[in-house]
Amino acid sequence: MSSKISKIKIGSIAEELEIESGDILISINGTEIKDIIDYKFLLADDYVEVEIEKKDGEVWTLEVEKDYEEDLGMEFEKEIMDEALSCCNNCLFCFVDQLPRGMRKTLYFKDDDSRLSFLQGNFVTLTNMTDEDIDRIIRYRISPINVSVHTTNPSLRVKMLNNRFAGNIYQRLQKLAAAGIKMNCQIVLCPGYNNGEELIKTVKDLYLLYPSVENVAAVPVGVTSFRKNLNEITLYDAESSKAELNNIFDFQKNSIKEISTPFIRLSDEFYVLSGNEVPKAEFYSEFDQVEDGVGMIRLFRDSISKDLKKLKIEGKGSFTLITGTLAYNEILKAAIAIEARNNNLKLNVHKVINNFFGETITVAGLLTGQDIMKQIKVDSVLDYIIMPRNMFKSGENIMLDDVTIDELEKYFKKKIIICDYKGEDLIQLINEHI
């Protein structure tokens, strides 16, 4: 059963009601529970009747008085109580299509499920949804959702997603906006396809839907060394990155005047490649797009600057920091500042080149354990190794090539410290180990 309970939280309502793992949630207020959206929508009340089938087959009907938004404290065998919807597109820029064979199966699954967008922040294209599915988002107030737009040009979107049903994106966004559904939008920029004038057109279309469309993040296409028999893709370089920043500048300037936000922001890669200085913190508002690599450098830089005064100046210790090529210079500057604050500390920053996927992949989150072990000599590692959390699978200590933290610690014979990938806890972690 999709609504089979796997865990009961300690001190929860479910525990008080003697609901147990292995029990099955049948209905709430007489409505059958089909997935997590049913569950969360029907639970949003201060009085509910919950029907539970016990492991012995007995059915309990429980009356529950609670706070309006209070959860019962149950977790389910399947997080969304259903199979996740898979992507029905064949995007010319798809990263999954550029993976080598032999990696773990979950890496090859292309999810495109609005429920995961709501729960986990995943991006969806809306192409595998019926009109009834869109109506369900509106009825259940599934908000915010993250939408992979890429372009509002119908024929171009059909071409880029290689899906003849992909051209109605703007009509669907309009319908969601009219119903007050909040959306964050993403654009994967592919030079020669959806950049330049096409980008401006897309952003202007989305701007008409503000404030329902709250912001737009644009990231450069990534190409791995395993890209075979697929459309040729041009990568951004220093010149084209600068041109894209200039391309969007006037729109951002006007948007800041009108709504106090640039509305569209380009990811940090554009600034690093072009040599342009990253904007100040106010440009990024609440850093809502940081997981797209938008504002990560600024957030890291400001976090170090703010927290440096908290660094213990009497402690001693040595640390090896591992990162990719994109963030290397920024991490190095932070290490120098930390050493200057406490000259009893030694921090070595190791830049790992992504030989596994190809040198054009520069972000730390796509590094593999094998590249780290091949490129960093064991005898060069200091007392502790610090690695960013986004190098590992969410909730687990395993890298893209299935190398675990335990394996890395055995290889280097050193303890590994996991740091928030935005660097907000770096100073605190150093203090704890000196």
Q: Can you walk through the features of this model?
A:
The protein is 31% helix and 18% strand. It is built from 14 helices and 15 strands. Helix 4 (131-139) links the parallel strand 7 and strand 8. It has 3 domains: 5-76, Pdz3 Domain; 96-293, pyruvate-formate lyase- activating enzyme (Alpha-Beta Horseshoe), CATH 3.80.30; 301-432, Rossmann fold, CATH 3.40.50. It has helices at residues 13-16, 36-43, 114-120, 131-139, 154-161, 169-178, 197-207, 238-259, 268-274, 296-307, 328-341, 369-375, 405-412, 426-432; strands at residues 5-8, 24-28, 31-32, 47-53, 59-65, 74-76, 123-124, 145-148, 183-189, 213-220, 264-266, 317-323, 345-351, 384-388, 415-419. A 5-stranded parallel β-sheet has the order 7-8-9-10-11. A 4-stranded antiparallel β-sheet has the order 3-2-4-5, covered by helices on one side. The radius of gyration is 24 Å and the shape is globular. With 434 residues, it is an alpha/beta fold.
Q: Return Rg in Å.
A: 24 Å
Structural class: alpha/beta
| Distance N to C terminus | 50 Å
Residues in helices, as a percent range? 25-40%
Quickly name the level 1 CATH class of the largest domain. Alpha Beta
For this structure, the CATH topology of the largest domain is: pyruvate-formate lyase- activating enzyme
Shape: globular
**Overall number of structural domains:** 3
| Mean of all residue-level pLDDT scores | 92
- List low-confidence stretches: none
Query: Number of helical segments?
Result: 14
DSSP, total strands? 15
Most strands sheet: 5 strands, parallel
Strand order of the largest sheet: 7-8-9-10-11
Strand content: 15-25%
The run of helices and strands is EHEEHEEEHEHEHHEHEHEHHEHEHEHEH
The CATH architecture term of the largest domain is: Alpha-Beta Horseshoe
